[in-house]
Fold this sequence. Notes:
98 residues, mainly alpha, 94% helix
Amino acid sequence: MLIIDDLLLFPVRSILWVFKEIHNAAQEEQANEAEAITAELSELYMMLETGKITETEFDTREKILLDRLDVVQARETDLEDEDQEDEEQEEQEEQEDA
């Protein structure tokens, strides 16, 4: 019976594994997004210093990158706040149960 169960559940387990891998990849990408934006800003400063771009072009691109960085940092802060609230709520529930 175990072999039949494994064969029947294999498609479901495979789909779940694929979704978990996609989720993990998305989390890694979000975690590295702030670093990527910071690297782009560094490149932008170097391009300005070497004269490859003008001051107005620099200002425009810098504003876009800084706005993206603000969004990423706000999202990270929100996630940290949610995690902290969840932990506090769990502690309160444990104290109420005791």
